Amino acid sequence: MFGSYLPILIIAVVLGLVTQWYINSSYRRYSQVPLATGQTGAQVARHMLDSEGLTHVGIEMIPGHLTDHYDPREDVLRLSEDVYKGSTVAAAGVASHEAGHAVQHAHGFVFARMRQVLVPTANIGSSLAFPLILGGLFANITGLIMLGVIMFAGAVLFQVVTLPVEFDASRRALGALDTGNVLPPEQVRGARRVLSAAALTYIAATLVAVLQLLYFLGLARR
């Protein structure tokens, strides 16, 4: 029964390693390319936010590597030190991507709103799905397995909805970098490579989650 899960586990490990290597290598490469304008990531994000009328959105520096995110509850961008202070193509790409999430929030981007609503469902599904499925398998209770599958499906739905949110944030970021004359065309291409590498991690995670869901559905139907 669990032997058939091994291919999914192998796919998950391989995809995880490959995508992490790719995003880290892309980020390292373009972290060595100085921004032509000399702006820091924080300044690039501030410019993008202000051009969208979002002068009220704050920008803070936080510890960690690639821990950058937008907090819609407090309306603040939190950028890692390398991105906040960095005057590189990689820093500009990451900072503008997070600013893109703030723009989505301000404009009521439908998928961003859906993802926010799904956060509790995803958290519950991630924590309870596997115990319920395993418990149902060992106790031979199909209903318990199905309940776990339904909870896991909520977590998978969250990941699926995350894809258009991340793609749209990158699209907004690259548009701002290009049309705002923040970067010359060749450096915009570098920022696109960094953001494309990051997008692959979301695609890989979603693919693995969908494969897991299909596997668990098969177990529930036996």
**Strand-and-helix sequence, N→C?**
HHEEEHHHHH
Question: So how many helices?
Answer: 7
Proportion of strand residues: 5-15%
Q: Numbering strands along the chain, what is their spatial order in the largest sheet?
A: 1-3-2
Low-confidence stretches: none
- Can you summarize the main beta sheet? 3 strands, mixed
Rounded Rg:
20 Å
Helix content: over 70%
User: Which structural class fits the helix and strand makeup?
Assistant: mainly alpha
Oligomer: single chain
Count of distinct strands: 3
Cα distance spanning the termini: 11 Å
Q: How many domains in all? A: 1
Please tell me what the overall shape is: elongated
> On the 0-100 scale, what is the average pLDDT?
91
Task: Describe, in plain words, how this protein is organized in 3D.
Helices cover 74% and strands 6% of the residues. It contains seven helices and three strands. It has helices at 6-31, 41-51, 81-85, 89-107, 110-139, 142-179, 185-220, and strands spanning 58-62, 69-71, 76-80. The chain has a three-stranded mixed sheet with strand order 1-3-2. β2 and β3 (76-80) form a beta hairpin. α2 (41-51) packs parallel to α4, α4 crosses α7 (185-220) and α5 runs antiparallel to α6 (142-179).
Quick structural gist:
This protein has 222 residues and is mainly alpha-helical. Helices cover 74% and strands 6% of the residues. It has 7 helices and 3 strands, in the order ααβββααααα.
